[in-house]
C-alpha cells in the first residue's frame, strides 16, 4: 500500500498516477525516517540522500498498480493503519495539505529483480517528485513477485478500499 499526497513539484493540483508499473527508487530526501513508525526504521540505510554525482542508486524492486482509491475521509485513512509505516501525524499533515483534503491509496504488487540494476544519479532525478523517467524496461529483467499469489490476495482483501 502506498499513500501519496503528491510531490511539491506537482503543486496543490496534486498527485496523478503516470504509470501502471514503476521502479521503487530508493531515496532519502526530507528525513523520511522520522515520519515513520519505529517498526519501519530497520528499512532505512545509513546513507546520505542521492544527489547528482553521488554513488549510483541500486534498483531492486518495481511495483505494479493493481488498485487505486482517493481517500477523502480521515476515518478511511485511519482504518489502514496496520497496512503502512507512516505515523498518524505524518498522514494527517499530508491529508490536510491536499486540496481537496485526502490521500491517494495505491495497492501495488511488488516484484524483485533477479539481478539488481545500478543507476547513476543525474540532475533530472533530484527534488521532491513522485515520478522520474528511468532508462530500464521492466520486461528486459527477470523478476518475481515478493509475495505469493495467496498471501497477496489476502492482504489486498484486508484493505477494503
Describe the protein.
The longest helix is centred in the C-terminal third of the chain and has 11 residues, at 149-159. With 161 residues, the protein is of the alpha+beta class. It is 16% helix and 25% strand. Strands 1, 2, 3, 4 and 5 form a five-stranded antiparallel β-sheet that branches.
Defining key terms:
161 residues, alpha+beta, 5 strands, globular
Low-confidence stretches: none
Mean pLDDT: 84
Q: SSE order, as H and E?
A: EEEHHEEH
**Estimated radius of gyration:** 16 Å
% residues in beta strands: 25-35%
Write the topology of this structure.
Blueprint: E1 2-4, E2 21-23, E3 57-71, H1 74-78, H2 88-97, E4 103-119, E5 143-145, H3 149-159
Antiparallel strand pairs: 1-4, 2-3, 3-4, 4-5
In short:
The protein has 161 residues and is α+β, with helices and mostly antiparallel strands.
Amino acid at each position: 500500500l502506498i499513500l501519496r499526497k503528491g510531490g511539491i513539484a506537482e503543486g496543490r493540483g496534486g498527485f496523478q498516477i503516470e504509470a501502471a508499473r514503476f521502479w521503487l527508487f530508493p531515496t532519502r530526501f526530507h528525513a523520511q525516517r522520522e515520519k515513520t513508525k519505529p517498526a519501519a526504521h530497520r528499512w532505512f540505510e545509513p546513507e546520505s540522500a542521492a544527489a547528482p554525482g553521488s554513488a549510483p542508486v541500486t534498483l531492486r524492486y518495481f511495483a505494479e498498480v493493481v488498485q487505486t482509491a482517493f481517500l477523502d475521509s480521515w476515518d478511511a485513512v485511519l482504518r489502514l493503519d496496520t497496512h503502512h509505516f507512516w505515523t498518524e501525524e505524518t498522514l494527517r499533515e499530508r491529508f490536510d495539505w491536499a486540496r481537496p483534503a485526502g490521500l491517494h491509496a495505491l495497492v501495488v504488487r511488488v516484484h524483485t529483480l533477479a539481478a539488481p540494476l545500478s543507476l547513476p544519479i543525474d540532475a533530472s532525478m533530484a527534488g521532491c517528485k513522485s515520478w522520474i523517467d528511468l532508462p530500464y524496461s521492466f520486461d528486459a529483467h527477470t523478476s518475481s513477485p515478493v509475495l505469493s499469489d495467496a498471501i497477496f490476495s489476502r492482504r489486498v482483501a484486508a484493505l477494503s478500499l
